[in-house]
């Protein structure tokens, strides 16, 4: 994959250690499975609920949770305590749900990839060939004073990651990948460390996970699990988005997202709606769905929609900011600067617009 290859020099910069012949990927995976608890224990895993504390910069969430269930279910959130404001998951395809303005999206592109790459209940290395993955051992190196084997996992969609397996304990102690951090962020080479392994029903799990940007050493995020629940009975329905009541505006948002590849269809639907509901405030809804369309890579539709919204709401700082973000993503830097300046003029407290303008060099 191009974005992975572009950073391979960073990921593979460690000098391989001299030593005996390297084991095969199958051998490393087999020893890893045994170190975790053995084939029978891992295959007996049906569901897992992780709960703990998540830190990203100054943001701290004391109620972070994630659930996995065979064959491919995933929920970012607590299946026993649904979050009405936001949830995301995978039930055969990736989805996101936003309580305000009330939309459910089936995602593609980077957002979908980020979800599906973490679906395996026993991780990508265990039984990798059964998952349709291939793997090879790229070398042996030192990590935090220990010898580790570097195993490159190749996934069917072209994504790759390097798993670092302790040559003594055979546990996974690190992984490296290249991926976008946020919706419009550049691909970043990062290394994730796994530590504080503890047994849960005969299987070892890392209770501490820390991701660091390789180029700078900056800590990107940290997760500390406080509890891991194994094989709780979960209904597959909890891994699908909730059914939302559809107002006319929410129905329009659904249609616009589905039509996002066709600029003319998007704008026709938008204009029809504005004529039918001339007094209904659609500003925030258009900002929200325009952003989601932009995330999916359909820049022309997002720009056209957000231009129309900014024209309909000329006194809205949010509308101007949303348009500026679309311009910036489309490479229209001067237009983006003008939109961000207008957002600040309309609301001097619009910090997002100030940050975006500064990122463009004012």
Short description:
By secondary structure, the chain is an alpha+beta fold.
Task: Set out the fold topology.
Layout: H1 2-6, H2 8-11, H3 25-36, H4 39-43, E1 47-56, E2 59-69, E3 73-76, E4 86-90, E5 94-98, E6 103-106, H5 109-116, E7 134-143, E8 146-154, E9 160-166, E10 172-180, E11 187-200, E12 203-213, E13 219-230, H6 248-258, H7 263-276, H8 283-295, H9 299-312, H10 317-329, H11 333-346, H12 351-359
Helix pairs in contact: 6-7, 6-8, 7-9, 8-9, 8-10, 9-10, 10-11, 11-12
How would you describe what is shown here?
There is one protein chain. The protein is α+β, with helices and mostly antiparallel strands. The chain has two domains: 2-238, outer membrane lipoprotein receptor (LolB), chain A; 248-359, Tetratricopeptide repeat domain (Serine Threonine Protein Phosphatase 5, Tetratricopeptide repeat, Alpha Horseshoe). Helix content is 34%, strand content 31%. The chain is built from twelve helices and 13 strands. It has helices at residues 2-6, 8-11, 25-36, 39-43, 109-116, 248-258, 263-276, 283-295, 299-312, 317-329, 333-346, 351-359, and strands at 47-56, 59-69, 73-76, 86-90, 94-98, 103-106, 134-143, 146-154, 160-166, 172-180, 187-200, 203-213, 219-230. The chain has a 13-stranded antiparallel beta sheet with strand order 6-5-4-3-2-1-13-12-11-10-9-8-7. Helix 8 (283-295) runs antiparallel to helix 9 and helix 8 runs parallel beside helix 10. The longest helix is centred in the C-terminal third of the chain and has 14 residues, at 263-276. The radius of gyration is 23 Å and the shape is elongated.
């Amino acid at each position: 994959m191009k974005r992975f290859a572009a950073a391979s020099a960073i990921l593979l910069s460690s000098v391989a250690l001299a030593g005996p012949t390297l084991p095969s990927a199958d051998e490393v995976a087999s020893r890893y499975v045994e170190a975790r608890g053995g084939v029978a224990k891992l295959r007996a895993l049906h569901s897992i609920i992780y709960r703990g504390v998540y830190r990203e910069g100054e943001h701290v969430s004391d109620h972070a949770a994630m659930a996995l269930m065979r064959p491919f279910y995933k929920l970012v959130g607590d299946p026993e305590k649904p979050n009405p404001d936001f949830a995301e998951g995978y039930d055969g395809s990736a989805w996101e749900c936003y309580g305000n303005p009330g939309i459910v999206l089936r995602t593609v592109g980077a957002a979908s990839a980020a979800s599906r790459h973490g679906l395996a209940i026993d991780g990508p290395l265990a039984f990798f060939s059964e998952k349709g993955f291939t793997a090879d051992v790229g070398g042996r190196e030192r990590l935090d004073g220990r010898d580790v084997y570097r195993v490159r996992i190749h996934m069917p969609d072209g994504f790759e990651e390097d798993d670092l397996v302790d040559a003594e304990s055979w546990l996974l102690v690190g992984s490296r990948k290249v991926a976008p951090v946020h919706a419009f962020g550049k691909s970043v080479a990062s290394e994730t460390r796994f530590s504080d392994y503890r047994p849960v029903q005969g299987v070892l799990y890392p209770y501490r996970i820390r991701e660091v940007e390789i180029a700078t050493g900056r800590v990107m995020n940290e997760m500390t699990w406080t509890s891991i629940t194994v094989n709780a009975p979960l209904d597959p329905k909890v891994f699908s988005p909730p059914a939302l009541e559809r107002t006319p505006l929410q129905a329009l948002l659904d249609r616009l997202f589905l039509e996002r590849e066709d600029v003319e269809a998007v704008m026709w639907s938008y204009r029809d709606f504005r004529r039918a509901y001339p007094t209904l405030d659609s500003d925030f809804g258009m900002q929200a769905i325009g952003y989601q369309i932009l995330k999916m890579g359909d820049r022309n539709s997002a720009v056209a929609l957000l231009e129309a919204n900014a024209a309909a709401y000329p006194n809205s700082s949010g509308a101007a900011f949303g348009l500026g973000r679309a311009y910036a993503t489309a490479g229209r830097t001067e237009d983006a600067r003008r939109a961000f300046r207008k957002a600040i003029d309309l609301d001097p407290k619009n910090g997002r617009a100030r940050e975006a303008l500064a990122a463009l060099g004012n």
